[in-house]
């Protein structure tokens, strides 16, 4: 597996297949081209034999000079359980550290238990929310009306 | 009319009404909370009598150190034709200039003739595209499959 920085041309390759990676869910809307034009230097592509097997879209917070944010991560369904997500996160942590930042934030859906467990394994803690869903603290309406989100925070050592 | 910086709490006020501003179109998906957490210092709110009458979501490009980008602008339907959009753009231009950047990019839909005329009036030029729709140069599939966009560029003097 190779990890490289995102390039603008990756957009045209990823967008047509991205909904399939999520079993048909409409995810392409979370990936407007702006991320492929303006946040390439903190976003990553995993590749194997010239095929994209995963990606991470992240950026350095413009407002909080000590923070970075992971917006969206995906792994090709045929390449799961191979630690591609873990490798992408670790590479992002290294980039954030190089930029002299210490806090990384990320969010997920409260129903996505795999993602919650993954973040906890990667050293994220769940932030205090304003309500509890399935025993997990969430911030209500975080990603739109009725769309609650689990908020994660990790402090780099 | 007052113009101020975006605040995180504006999210809870804007999100429930934003689709109505566009006559019921689903626009809330273009405004994930990340913009209200990490790009407040280049995003703007227009207010009148404590009511939000308009907003501009913009950021400084992380990759291109001379560029800024306008992601999303809205004006409350009851407050149109009052130059709120123009005022928000001018205030954003000033912020970009203060950050010592000279190029501003923005996009719109080829069917949105009002937006195209507005951008041209504000000094944007239409960038070369890869096809033509209704006599306007567009970049095909720019915001997803089949979603063409007109690309604008303005150079600050």
Compact overview of the structure:
Helices cover 26% and strands 31% of the residues of chain A. Chain A is of the alpha+beta class.
Description:
The structure is a homodimer of 157-residue chains. Chain A is of the alpha+beta class and 157 residues long. Chain A contains four helices and nine strands; from the N terminus they run βααβββαβαββββ. Helix content of chain A is 26%, strand content 31%. In chain A, the strands form two sheets. A seven-stranded mixed beta sheet of chain A has the order 1-2-3-4-5-9-6. A two-stranded antiparallel sheet of chain A has the order 7-8. The longest helix of chain A is centred in the middle third of the chain and has 15 residues, at 84-98. The two termini of chain A are 26 Å apart. The interface between A and B is medium-sized, with 31 and 30 residues.
In which range does the helix fraction of chain A lie? 25-40%
Mean pLDDT of chain A: 95
Helical segment count of chain A: 4
- One letter per element, helices H and strands E, the order of chain A comes to EHHEEEHEHEEEE
Largest interface, Cβ cutoff 8 Å:
A-B, 31 and 30 residues
Low-confidence stretches of chain A: none
Q: Percent of residues of chain A in beta strands? A: 25-35%
The assembly state of the depicted protein chains is: homodimer
Major β-sheet of chain A, in short? Answer: 7 strands, mixed
Q: Radius of gyration of chain A from the CA trace?
A: 15 Å
Q: What structural category characterises the helix and strand content of chain A?
A: alpha+beta
How is the largest sheet of chain A built, in terms of strand order?
Answer: 1-2-3-4-5-9-6
């Amino acid at each position: 597996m190779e990890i490289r920085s995102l390039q603008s041309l990756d957009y045209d390759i990823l967008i047509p297949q991205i909904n399939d990676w999520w079993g048909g869910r409409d995810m392409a809307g979370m990936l407007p081209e702006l991320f492929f034009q303006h946040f390439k230097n903190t976003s990553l592509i995993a590749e194997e034999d010239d095929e994209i097997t995963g990606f991470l879209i992240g950026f350095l917070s413009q407002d909080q000079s000590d923070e970075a944010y992971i917006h969206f991560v995906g792994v090709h369904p045929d390449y799961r359980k191979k630690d591609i997500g873990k490798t992408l996160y670790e590479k992002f942590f290294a980039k954030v550290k190089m930029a002299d930042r210490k806090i990384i934030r990320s969010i997920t859906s409260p129903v996505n238990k795999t993602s919650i467990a993954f973040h906890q394994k990667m050293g994220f803690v769940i932030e205090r929310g304003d309500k509890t869903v399935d025993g997990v603290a969430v911030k209500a309406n975080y990603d739109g009306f009725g769309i609650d989100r689990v908020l994660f925070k990790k402090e780099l050592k």
